[in-house]
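Hi R.,

As promised on Friday, here is the backbone we talked about, encoded as structure tokens. Could you run it through your design pipeline when you get a chance and send me back a sequence?
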């Protein structure tokens, strides 16, 4: 693809029970951008992510990934450029060993065996867990599973990285490692999260969703100081932007 953009035009989705999941939303994400999707539960974040990987088809409107509209004809091609890390790593880890899990994607892309092995090692090195290569994924800690799940996506060399609540259920040390790792990636990143402090560190742009609609789209720091906007969207300021209850000063990242 010449331009790894992600674009939605009047994207609308209604669930079979009549619930509106997305209500005519529009946005364009450019190559190399890091964008947070934030909003309260039920705002439409996961619904949007599932559209971006073709797991849900819009009721109306269009999605464009790079040079191609996302439709049945182009789905396989688009999925070569988009990698998604799901909220629960166990949804992605199902093979006997870490090696097998990370190799699964490249093998299914028809990558030669020697290159598959190199991709596995490179991906595990990138996320800092090459020592886990022969371990069973189901015996790993939460942070280790998260790292391996990211490696399974990196091994397919996507241009666009989509993540659903990547910091959920991580201890502080694992969360910090994840944040530091994400800050090194040059991929186009779309991260749905309730962790506004992580969004503040990793994403320069934020899209706020509320009941399936985009209520704000702009610079993360500017949106996160708007207490009225956050409150009406079911959110609150990141802890690092709140006053200390003892000294009344603001924290600094």
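Update: got your reply. Pasting your designed sequence below so it's all in one thread:
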């Amino acid at each position: 693809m010449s331009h790894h953009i992600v674009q939605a035009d009047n994207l609308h989705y209604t669930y079979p029970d009549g619930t509106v999941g997305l209500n005519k939303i529009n946005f364009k994400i450019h190559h190399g951008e890091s964008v947070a999707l934030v909003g309260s539960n039920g705002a439409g974040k996961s619904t949007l992510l599932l559209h971006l990987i073709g797991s849900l088809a819009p009721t109306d409107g269009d999605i464009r990934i790079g040079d191609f509209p996302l439709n049945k004809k182009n789905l396989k091609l688009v999925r070569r450029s988009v990698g998604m890390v799901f909220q629960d790593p166990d949804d992605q880890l199902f093979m006997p060993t870490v090696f097998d899990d990370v190799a699964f994607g490249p093998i299914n892309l028809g990558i030669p065996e020697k290159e598959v092995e190199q991709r596995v090692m490179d991906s595990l090195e990138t996320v800092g867990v090459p020592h886990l290569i022969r371990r069973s994924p189901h015996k790993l800690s939460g942070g280790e599973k998260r790292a391996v799940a990211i490696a399974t996506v990196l091994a397919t060399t996507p241009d666009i990285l989509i993540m659903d609540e990547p910091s959920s259920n991580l201890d502080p040390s694992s969360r910090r490692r994840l944040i530091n790792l994400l800050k090194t990636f040059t991929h186009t990143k779309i991260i749905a999260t309730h962790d506004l402090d992580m969004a503040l560190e990793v994403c320069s742009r934020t899209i706020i969703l509320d009941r399936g609609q985009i209520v704000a789209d702009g610079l993360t720091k500017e949106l996160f100081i708007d207490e009225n906007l956050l409150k009406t969207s079911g959110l609150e300021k990141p802890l690092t932007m709140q006053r200390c209850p003892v000294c009344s000063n603001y924290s600094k990242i």
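One thing I noticed while checking it: The CA atoms of residues 7 and 119 lie 29 Å apart.

Thanks again,
M.
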